[in-house]
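ugh finaly. both done.
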Amino acid sequence: MNDIVLGQRSLTDRLLRVALYGVLIGFMLFYLAPLYVMVVTSVKSLEEILAGGLMNLPKKLDFYGWSEAWNNACVGTECRGMAPFMWNSLIASTAATIIPTAIGALNGYALSLWRFKGSELFFGLLLFGAFIPFQIVLLPMASFLGWIGWSSSLVGLTFTYIVYGLPFTTLYFRNFFVSFPMDLVNAAKIDGIGYFRFFWRVALPSSVPIMIVSIIWQFTNTWNDFLFASTMTKLESATVMVALNNFVEVANGVKRYNVDMAAAIIAGLPTLAVYLVAGRYFLRGLMAGAVKG
């Protein structure tokens, strides 16, 4: 009798597992379908695209769309392709990733392991800044950048990214370092190991998981940003997301879907590469920083 019951349960478990995998595969195909359409459209000739068959594989690979999007696509009044704007985004995103991550590590270290009078209040005010809607500060920030001479420039945009990245990176590192055993910190103080020496020798090397989280978060947010980039730059300093929007808007005549799709894929490749390289460490780093808060 028990064998029959166990057999029924085993059959039910297998059916449920098959159903679960079926649902997951369905969701996977649903989310990958737009990417598939973008990729196959980007390597089709315009004649083949206009002939129909959205989901069909290309009869012949045609990389005209990629070449045109990278070298000759018109953005606003300039027809230099996406390359200059990719470079602008790379400069802004790299600086806005490295600097807030480094400062956030020091802030989190000080606010968790070497607390001072008023540190909790300081952390609360800093954390408050992470939840202020960006739209509220657009005009004050633009006025400030104009006052210091950085308006409509890549430097001003990068500065904005750095300022608004600091609350998040500080939060990540503070929540990570707060789980450090205080006995270790106290022993280091007794042995005469100073603030910065302990940071470089012990704290920073052990914070690699949360550092990866900070890097992925900052790079993705700054690279994909459109709000700040569209309001605080001009054409020469525009990022790739602004260029992509203007590139699509100024298209005239016959709609070149292959060029549009290639440009969109080019704009998204860096963040995709970051996730492919370091994505498996992202959840691990988040869990490491969620032990205490």
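ok and the 2nd:
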Amino acid sequence: MKFLSFRFEDKLLYGVKVKREEAAWNIVRIHKELIPNENVPETLLEGIQSGMELQETVRKCIRAAEESDHVSRYKVKFDDLVWEAPVPRTPKNVMCIGKNYRDHVLEMGSEKDIPEELVVFTKASTSITGDNALIPSYEELTDQLDYEGELAVVIGKRGKNIPEKQAIDYVFGYTIVNDVTARDLQSKHKQFFLGKSLDETCPMGPYLVSKDEIPHPHQLSIVTKVNDEIRQDGNTADMIFSIEKIISTLSKGMTLEPGDVIATGTPAGVGKGFNPPKFLKKGDQVKISVQGIGTLTNEIGE
């Protein structure tokens, strides 16, 4: 299923994409009007916390809507909604893996920088924004605003000290993250946090796709375009550390919770990697497409 969170009529809602339509099922409205006695989560995060049972609950909602006399009442056209990140506020900071694609490591440094262990940093949860949202240019703070297209994992159940062989059992699904970065702040402060955590610099979405629809997450193309110019053209097959390794390592001594988001790293082609660098400026449009998920689109605003 392709889940999404969105705003409609000034309310934060969630649903799933209607097949072969540019619209979403309004699960909250279906619940309240058609099956009020069913236990249906009010937000997508609550749904993730309920586990894979969410899919069966949603199927019941869709059946009820399709059998009603007013099917269109329970759909929201994409033109009429405001996209939110699938998880608008994660339980903890967005966890990110750096230097997880060899070619990206080389464009930013040299062979000696290829890691032997996970490079982990975080983005503040207040940096999260949705598809089609404007990303502030922050011209007063940086002149090196950069993009990073990434596959992100959304955790589906609580776990600690998770063995690699069981790691995928803890995944709810997958989404796209643009790890927007102020490179100069990243260098100035040595630690990545400030350069990675400016408000609205973690676009996420447009969908959260349940893991049953992506059985081979290490075989997905990742393409980033800036103003329709292809900048990144990679594949998750080229990860240095697998999703299983990432989840297992992060969970050693630290509890992972439903709704936690892990960005798994970016392939080569970031702005800083060009000579001269190609940093983002006002009016630029960034599109990140990940096979099986969709395209995350954002523009650089004021």
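summary for the 2nd one i guess: The longest strand covers residues 202-210.
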